[in-house]
Amino acid sequence: MIKSVAIQGVKGSFHHIVSQQYFDNGITVKECLSFDNAIDSLLNKESDAVIMAIENSIVGSIIPNYALIDTHNLHIIGEHYLDIQHHLMALPNQNITDIKEVYSHPMALLQCKEFFKSHPHIKLIEDKDTAEVAQRIQEHQLKSIAAIASKLAAEIFQLDILSESIQTIKHNETRFVIVKRKNSEIPENEINKASLKFELSSKRGSLATILNVMSDCKLNLTKIQSLPKIDTPWFYAFFVDVTFERYDDFKKAKSIIEIMAQDFKVLGEYKNAKI
């Protein structure tokens, strides 16, 4: 049973919001400065699970987090999709013309860059976390400084929202995964999605052969991400997500791919959150 969960960032962050939506109110949230720290807390048994952003509908995959899960032999036991709404916030009694600098996570700045073209007087500065900036503004009473963060962060740290939903693409969704040290114990008949990792050479047709196996076994490929192997030139690691209606179909495909590919690994078997 999961009683505590580690997140990258502080309360008010999007990872915190996911912890509230995915788990019940009794969950204990452990705040961590980085994903590496969050993983360390899991490995050291200071938390039961970690929530990790894994991909965004605008900027794509968060490759380092795939690598963390793979390197430490961790398991994805669930997923959650969150509509990301970025709000510009600052201490009360200010307006946007008073703001000189905005600090936020690089991804948040990237997702909101069109908004700031209309406000060239504002300097954009990369920071560790969205909500942590909001917390710092409140703790140090920083005027002329603004954060890009969630509405929950504005409420927790008593900041005024100067402009709502400033992200360039209004439908901005991030996929989060819930990660544990061991695989889930969800019954096979409830599992309809899996995350896989395998390695292939750049030999012609090697990837196509694997994809044909998936198709023949009635698997639907929902995600594929390649990563070159630094220590082995012209070899690539592939991170793949598949959905299926019958677990037996997945089991058949798994047994074939295990023979055909190198370093085959199941990163997780869980419920598809999009259904």
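(ticket continues) Second input and output from the same batch:
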Amino acid sequence: MKQNYLFLVIVVALIFGMAWSSPTEKPEEFIFGDLLPDAPVLAKRGDYKVGVRTVSLVNKNQLDVLNYKDSVASTYDRPITVEVWYPAIVSSAEEEIEVYDEVLGNFGDPKRPLIPFEFKGRCKRTAKVNDSDGPYPLLILSHGYTGSRYIFTYLAENLASKGYVVVSIDHTESTFRDAANFSSTLLNRSLDQLFVLNEMDRLSQPESGNFLSGLVDANNTGLIGFSMGGYGVLNTAGAGYSKNAAFMFSQMSGGCDALNGRMAGNEDYINSQDERIKAVVAFAPWGMTIGAWDSVGLAGLTKPVFFVAGSEDDISGYEKGTKAIFEGVVNSNRYLLTYMNARHNVAPNPPPAEALKEGIHIDEYLRYADSVWDQKRINNINQHFVSAFLGIHLKGKDYQKFLQVDENSKEKILNGFKPRTFVGLQLDHLTKKD
């Protein structure tokens, strides 16, 4: 009897051991952008497989503000690298996984040397395009200072799976790998964004011979920017800079007046307004606390905007920063999503494993993380709201309910959120001239 009992125990242990060790039973690796159990409904990926390619562009004869001296302006051919995610055809036999190459650190900072690392995404490099439902709306992503085109892959991949062509810019002289004087960032953000829009439009034409030919609907474009990227997209979309911003730039760049061309009221700036841009998402846009805009400049923005901010943002500011911009763009139909008690990092991927290692400068971690919020949770919420907002304005989706509080619920929840999960968030809405 004892022998039979012992045999049974061994058999059961072996069965459970085999089940535990079976690859099909192990939990799947979490990749940036994957869903947590409490993710809101529109955070889920769409029906399209996703491809990704790197494209190198050159914006010729641009002002070289870094070498502006004694009122003498020189020009250079400005290289711009972009990453493009798009609806793709990926067979069941292929793995829809990409390994991105990134760095921690800041170029030229001895206390924060460049440290290469890799992380995974859910897309396939150089996959065949899926043009069955194209052309697709265009989304242009713009990172902070410093940053890179890979700073929010969780969002880029997610939106591409929903039928967008998503283009993320490496802003030259503003990335982890090539950071230079801040004057380049102040001047070139909106210029880079407009250049990339024009290039995507050009490459989408039938005669381009590019993989983007026939794939991009540039006449239906959305802009998404974080921090300095947010500073740029607001200006690109109609918020002209103030005289104070132009003066600050001149002081920083040795007397260069080039930012005057992006000021409110400037004829060249007025003529640069682009009707192809239909909607804007601005994560923690920088600039308001130093007077980059005034009431006149903000009034020039008439396109719909979805703002996202942390209530304790100590970089861009909240009450006198993002919230003040939100209240000041009086001619825009706009939303403000606030992560209560969060600081500045309401847009990036979660921190990579390398940023968690002992001895790594804490700013490598804080570049990606928030000290109150789980970054993966932030990512899912962003996927949901950005999908709702852009779905309305670029795809004509009936997603308005996801931007409205369910007044019939027993607790204050937003449509699309699971019970007890709409906490720590505030969503405000203002219409034109409210």
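Agent notes: Residues 37-430 form a domain with the Rossmann fold fold (CATH 3.40.50.1820). Confidence is low (pLDDT under 50) at residues 5-23. Closing as not reproducible unless the customer responds.
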